[in-house]
Input
Amino acid sequence: MIEFTNVAAYRQFDERVLGWEVLLSAAQCRMARAAAGLSRPELAKRAQVSVGTISDFERGLRDPYTRTLRDIQDALEEQGVTFLEATDAGSGVRYRD
Output
């Protein structure tokens, strides 16, 4: 069994081994949720995760499993959010209403 110490390690594994690209960071989650006008409970319901998971992730207290990050990202993308890849200028979100 492979053990990871943080989200960055998951992302590196996903990109190299599984071919997945997980872009969602805690800051992007907060920005995307605000842009979409979702409360933490609303996002949690849409992503089918606990409110505590959203809250802890956004506050940097928890590194969710990759599948959980994908569920959160998918729920936000369904609301019109696009996640922008990190560049030297940083990462971000775009919202279409």
